[in-house]
């Protein structure tokens, strides 16, 4: 290798590291390793420094005990003396610096079995690279190949060495594997630190490489037929042979069960394979006739007796444990819960598989996750190894890369040590390799210091609060003797989503799936904060008087007070209640006295609005009141005031219930920073009654009643159903409820048309008995709720949409879902936006009773909207012989006033001159009468035929020419052809055959009204590009639907389909889109976004918009390309379809408001979106361009 000289020193360590006393503790367990030194021998190192390098090597060798088990690669140096002589004889050579080639030579010539490497015997492999120069060839790829082979690489940079280059050679993190010294004279000072780190790495790597083997116990059914037994014995002998079973490798146990369980031999009985096989071959069943098999009892016995350390089990050493049950027939009773009990302890692993990015985490692509790991002395080496394996499982399931999920690790004992920073690793595999050798130091336990370190001194609570206030979500996992109160103080709210406990370290593996589901779901929910789930609930709650009574005692810090203010502001913003008086008052912890003053404040608020409105008091306190609270709170409730009590920190639950009067209106959080998470609970409760008031629908509960659900869990499901029903408007003409249980069979408890009262339905649910059997659309909206070990993919397939799937770790969490699901049921898919709406009401030939139905219809339309000066405005015109205006669009500014202004007495009758009324109504949409540049709608309600039908079309067309949407509603004697002429299209024309049917017609009209109130884009110009995913994740059927929506496609290499200035006629543009072909392939969104940026014309001076339609699952990074588009003022909107990768789409849009998959997930629903509704968010279209991505 002339010209690129390197010195390779191969050392086989077969005993232990000796030397100074300080090293003995760290190196006493590092008994075996293969270590190779790669020393630069180029001309950049002079002869004097070369002598210092040899001195350093001899010093290291002196502290190593060199074994004689293998030959040394540099030939014949099998002991320390000969190796020292060889080093002394190394000659100085000059040459260039080509470190990359030297590393490859190291990998192919030294770390091989032929050269003496014992990697195949699970011996740790170590390389130490020493250099003072800058390599002239590539080092990244050769170093990566060496590390991928399992070699741990240390780097030592001397003087002017290129540390950035050396960092790419050494293992990560550089804080552990990279050292820098000023000159070669400093090598001797570095020796002890290097040896200490090498020793720790050797021991950790040895633990990672050690085969953990397994404990396997076979349980055979005593009633097996003889022929079956012979087959089982034959297979068992073959398995024991193949596993090479022994006391130090795979341990085998055998038992048979009938009514009782009999152990043939335990896990510790035999020390070698031969004796085990002899006993198995001689095994005979001893069946007990007429005695049914008790498999459930056998499973319980296995859990309590067969796998314990006393019986030879090695779970405490990290051994996997398997129970293999061979049953001949069904047990006399259910065994599901017994099997679940075994699994819950984590001592018996039933299956294992290679970890990949799981279904739950596919969309959780962008997050910074830091693991804080206790490495105190109480953990111990074996348990710390189990924690390493748990970390490895979790990280394996995440999409780790610099632009996606980044992982950090901090270990702590008496001090906190950063092991991995968020930017330490660029490669997931290298991170996983490092986790395998995560160092363990022992020591004391200071969790608070670790939390503070993670943020950037030991009091756990304050440190955790500081971290949470910085926007960090904290999960707390307590094992064995962890203090639960500390876990609750640390974790984010709610505790059931963020606190986990395990009785032993061996139970960590079983926790992985649950924690992973919650972690990835919360990553997506936190990042993609689209509209809140309560946004649509308060549409019908127009008015309320709300007071906040805040504890302002000395225990409240300024930060606590700021959190309370934040809570109130968010409440106001999120609820979007109409005309409200919302106030907040402070005071000491004399809550009773403060409550006594609230009554007159509510009275004063009522005086200012001159009428009654719903009254709510929300009390926030962090301690026990010094005075009595129950009596003053009761006085307020007698005045119709609904009280909610929020307790923080040291508040009294008893007093909270006395204040609220109902436990369901009390909430406790452990600290003030958790207040932001409970806002929705109040909003849902305040608005739910109004939200459900006019809702018609059928709610059908399909409940799992199999043996996997125990009695307590079944009751929690019943409580959940009853709560949802309590919030629904049950009635014969309102909401109907049905319930069915299922397991291997099904049972209809009651159909939708059996009960019409909440009392009867709740009673029927109470009377339900569980089936306890084995486990196995048109217009129907399905919500799926998974608990414990559910399959999220199946739930999504059942519901059709991910936003209708709820996942909970246990049945207790159903309490948190009650209000969410009940409000979802009452929420409308489509909500009316800002609009000017005028009712044009025929009063010519109708009775007072018939008019009353008309009035209720108008009121139901008003109740679906938010009324206000800047929201929706209403006007009313009646007509017969002549039209008459009752109030204009700018007359009233609240829902209450509009409803009060609709006449209760029928206006004057006469002829039905609808044509004259249509002409009359046009001027009432102008600015003088309150009209605005918003969607304008005329709702014509008529009960008969027009006197002059021929004159209807002219004024109706003129209204449409002025942008007014005309909706016709005909009753009884109305002429359907005339209704169609008035409306202009069948979709805007409605007919009922009796006046009473008007009272519920608003449910059928809601989507038409919603689409009509969506803003248009008249008179505006913009450039709009559609970019559509044509990769294989979008199937051909979906692609055809996208073409109908409009157009552009990408996969690998983008290709122009047509330019912005090619088509100016809609017909030509659509024709081209329909002829585009589908090709499939991988998804390269970043490349497509880069390509498309060149096609926007900056000189036009109009808004520039890009609409991306994709599932977001890109094979390349998208963030830089998307940032470039936004920097150049190109607004990017994304419609997520299929299996959506929310966070990647969020990286592209830059804001959740531009991510349009919150309501519908599937492509066919996206296609059915109202196009003007989409365009309203991105202005109108004057030019189009599509980009097509084809597979190269």
TrEMBL record:
Q: What is this protein called?
A: Collagen alpha-6(VI) chain
Please name the source species: Dissostichus eleginoides (Patagonian toothfish)
The cross-references to SMART domains, in alphabetical order and at most eight, read: VWA (SM00327)
Q: Where in the cell is it found?
A: Secreted
Secretion signal span: 1-22
Classification of source organism: Eukaryota, Metazoa, Chordata, Craniata, Vertebrata
> Which Gene3D superfamilies does the UniProt entry name for this protein?
von Willebrand factor, type A domain
Entry's Pfam families? VWA (PF00092)
Name the domain of life this protein comes from.
Eukaryota
This protein's UniProt keywords: Collagen, Glycoprotein, Repeat, Secreted, Signal
- Residue ranges annotated for the VWFA domain, each copy included: 34-194, 215-350, 368-686, 698-768, 836-1005, 1023-1192
Quote a single Gene Ontology cellular component term. Answer: extracellular region
Q: Which InterPro entries match?
A: ECM_Assembly_Org (IPR050525), VWF_A (IPR002035), vWFA_dom_sf (IPR036465)
The record ties this protein, via CDD domains, to:
vWA_collagen, vWFA_subfamily_ECM
